Amino acid sequence: MxxxxxxxxxxxxxxxxxxxxxDRVVAFQDIDPQAPVHVLVVPRRHIPTLxxxxxxxxxxxxxxxxxxxxVADKEGISESGYRTVFNCGGDGGQDxxxxxxxxxxxxxxxxPPG
Length: 114
What we know:
By secondary structure, this protein is α+β, with helices and mostly antiparallel strands. The chain has one domain: HIT family, subunit A. Helix content is 20%, strand content 23%.
């Protein structure tokens, strides 16, 4: 996707503070953090929303969560706890249409979230 900001970050065309990466997934700091730790975990392949994933992408979702767990360890929030969020579509709060998981921590989270 030529105009996707996350595709450009994954391709190295835009700067980002990358925290962790694998062959299929990249984790980087959010530029508008909503918590002391706010990392986005994205697939390298462009998938617009969670709803656009194919049945065979189940292992990719698992890898996204595995990377989130590793980043939580690196960022020192595993013991205190953290939140993971996928927003899907406009009403779900998705602003960038490239599948991404928010990893938030470093403070107590409120409920309900929105």
